[in-house]
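Need a sequence for this fold. Nothing fancy.
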């Protein structure tokens, strides 16, 4: 695929999917080398903490144990999974710049920017969850049907800013921005394109869910157990890296298009 179109116009979803597929097929070894060291420990820890399904589902303590295990899993993915996102973003950016990179360099770069990303992500979470928290408190005090109506503005607020901050991990990984500056950078790229970014994100979530269902169906004949769970988890993450590549292309495309007037102002004049 000719990736030069990234610099000249906004890519369609089909072009981004095609470009991500080409990058995945070309760099699958690097993807494996980035994903497995991060997600294999997460999958193992998660499998150790999930309770065995023995007895009725209503068995005392089982439901609470599942909730704790799920919370731990989400925390591990939130804290460590972003390393994969940033490493793949760095590798794609270098590839499109014509510079070779291996997984060690990609992971090392992600580790350097990791503390900044955690701080920036925390700030994004505070912004997205602030009104939801206020609505939750107000709804708890009001009770009844009013609780639902007080929660709705917080949900809308969270979704709106969640889309605005779609690209913060790529901003932190590839641009000298952090904290509020990174949040503003991502929001600037989304400005005027919120609906399109929302549709692309929803489409990718749908495709990833479909992939998860298909993978589950393929692995259904295998015997259950921790080993199968871990293998399925890691395999799913390896395939899901494809959708990260799509978002990286989306970010680089919007970033180039947004900066194009500035870059054109510095271009030398054409000969008559």
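Here you go.
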């Amino acid at each position: 695929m000719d990736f030069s179109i990234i610099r000249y116009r906004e890519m369609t979803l089909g072009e981004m999917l095609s470009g991500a597929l080409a990058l995945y097929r070309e760099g699958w070894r690097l993807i494996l080398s980035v994903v497995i060291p991060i997600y294999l420990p997460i999958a193992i820890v998660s499998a150790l903490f999930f309770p065995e399904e023995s007895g009725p589902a209503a068995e005392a303590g089982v439901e609470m144990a599942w909730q704790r295990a799920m919370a731990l899993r989400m925390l591990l993915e939130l804290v460590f999974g972003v390393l994969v996102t940033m490493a793949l973003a760095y590798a794609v950016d270098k590839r499109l710049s014509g510079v070779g990179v291996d997984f060690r360099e990609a992971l090392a770069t992600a580790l350097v920017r990791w503390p900044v990303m955690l701080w920036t992500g925390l700030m994004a979470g505070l912004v997205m969850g602030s009104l939801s928290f206020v609505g939750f408190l107000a709804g708890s005090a009001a009770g009844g049907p009013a609780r639902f109506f007080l929660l709705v503005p917080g949900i809308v607020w969270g979704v709106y800013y969640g889309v605005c901050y779609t690209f913060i991990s790529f901003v932190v990984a590839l641009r000298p921005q952090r904290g509020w500056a990174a949040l503003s950078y991502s929001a600037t790229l989304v400005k005027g394109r919120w609906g399109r970014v929302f549709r692309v994100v929803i489409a990718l979530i749908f495709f990833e869910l479909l992939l998860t269902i298909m993978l589950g169906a393929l692995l259904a004949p295998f015997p259950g157990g921790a080993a199968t769970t871990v293998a399925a988890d890691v395999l799913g993450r390896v395939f899901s890296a494809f959708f990260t590549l799509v978002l990286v292309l989306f970010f680089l495309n919007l970033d180039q298009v947004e900066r194009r007037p500035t870059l054109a102002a510095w271009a030398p004049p054409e000969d008559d």
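For context: The two ends are 33 Å apart (CA to CA).
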